[in-house]
């Protein structure tokens, strides 16, 4: 087994690999690490490795049919100024799936990637 000391990996199943790469690299500060378009791409932000698997990838083909829709799980990204990030992303026309929610730990909002996978933007209290 490969040592997990460099990255924590999350796989998102996406409809369009290039659209997902553009979304994460243009708007959320990820860097393209590797790509085998149109099946797969690997983007990173800090210690997070996000595996974007299109319909032709083995990761997508291994997914059971009853798990075809995006779930309630999400990538959690910490931001310094939530209001500034929300304004910037709204100006880019990106779709939010919630309003800003404030709790004891901070404030958060949910953004959807082009395939409907959720990304939580979180500003600690």
UniProtKB/TrEMBL annotation:
Keyword Isomerase listed:
no
Q: Where is the VOC domain?
A: 6-124
Q: Which UniProt keywords apply?
A: Metal-binding
What Gene Ontology terms for biological process does this UniProt record contain? L-methylmalonyl-CoA metabolic process
Tell me where the signal peptide lies: none
Pfam families documented for this protein? Glyoxalase
Q: Which GO terms describe its molecular function?
A: metal ion binding; methylmalonyl-CoA epimerase activity
Q: Which residues form a coiled coil?
A: none
> What is this protein identified as?
VOC family protein
**Organism whose genome encodes this protein:** Microbispora cellulosiformans
UniProt lineage: Bacteria, Bacillati, Actinomycetota, Actinomycetes, Streptosporangiales
